[in-house]
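Need a sequence for this fold. Nothing fancy.
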């Protein structure tokens, strides 16, 4: 794994002409257009990066973009791999691990998710304050490579308080409202039953989704600071009066792209100052 990550990070450095990057940005369903909107971005196809997994689901792209934005070197990932593709968890976290190997000290993970918190509605952007891993799986299961991180990583502040403060500043500056909530990770690919949504809600979840948590775990394992932002594209099953559809999700995501872009444009310049190598 370590050698594969090094090879992938070396390829990205050569292909982008940037020997190191500062901030990784993983773009969720419908949010990938942001990668192309970064000024002067150089794109690299996942399939050209050694050992890099290529996602299979429609609506998920498969490339990264490298750009320098307000002095911050950003590696933006359009398209990710999910547990429901039945691939090894090592593949699911490969992109985030590569980004940290490529120098990123900060990892911003975004996703589209269902909302079950009483304060949430479709279209809301939500700062993830913590998570519930309801899959029974963990990307760190198996032998631990001490070159990547410790056997038993602390998760008491998986989602950095400091970064959440910066996101709040970006929200105030950009005028883009930001809610806050706990994200529960399910395997998918089915959406939840109404009973499962009620279970998650009573356990403390405000959001339900199929990604992000393994990437957070891997990024924390490697010592990166993490920020998570969900786009609540739908009220979760049983809370919404209508059945969930992937088309509805895509429609809400498109409507939110502009707000999301304004928030990130204000946020990213705040993420560069520390830890630059
Ligand atoms: I978008 O309601 C989106 N992704 N698990 N449940 C789960 N994942 C989702 C949902 C949802 N909406």
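Here you go.
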């Amino acid at each position: 794994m370590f050698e594969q990550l090094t090879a992938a990070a070396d390829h990205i450095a050569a292909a982008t002409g940037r020997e190191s990057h500062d901030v990784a940005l993983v773009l969720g369903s419908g949010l990938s257009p942001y990668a192309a909107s970064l000024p002067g971005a150089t794109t690299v196809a996942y399939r050209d990066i050694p050992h890099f997994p290529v996602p299979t689901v429609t609506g998920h792209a498969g490339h990264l973009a490298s750009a320098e934005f307000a002095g911050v070197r950003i590696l933006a990932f359009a398209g990710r791999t999910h547990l429901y593709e039945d691939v090894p968890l090592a593949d699911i976290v490969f992109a985030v691990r590569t980004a940290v190997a490529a120098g990123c000290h900060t990892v911003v993970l975004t996703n589209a998710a269902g909302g079950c918190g009483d304060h949430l509605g479709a279209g809301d952007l939500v700062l993830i304050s913590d998570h519930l891993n309801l899959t029974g799986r963990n990307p760190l299961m198996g032998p631990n490579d001490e070159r990547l991180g410790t056997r038993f990583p602390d998760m008491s502040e998986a989602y950095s308080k400091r970064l959440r403060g910066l996101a709040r500043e970006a929200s105030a500056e950009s005028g883009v409202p930001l809610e806050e909530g706990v994200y529960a990770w399910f395997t998918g690919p089915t959406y939840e039953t109404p009973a499962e949504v009620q279970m998650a809600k009573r356990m403390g979840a405000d959001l339900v989704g199929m990604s992000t948590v393994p990437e957070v775990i891997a990024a924390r394992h490697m010592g990166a600071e993490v920020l998570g932002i969900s786009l609540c594209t739908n009220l979760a099953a049983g809370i919404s009066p209508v059945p969930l559809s992937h088309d509805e999700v895509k429609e809400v995501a498109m409507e939110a792209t502009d707000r999301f872009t304004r928030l990130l444009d204000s946020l990213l310049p705040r993420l560069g100052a520390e830890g630059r190598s």
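For context: The beta strands are 23-27, 42-45, 63-69, 72-78, 106-115, 125-133, 179-185, 207-209, 225-235.
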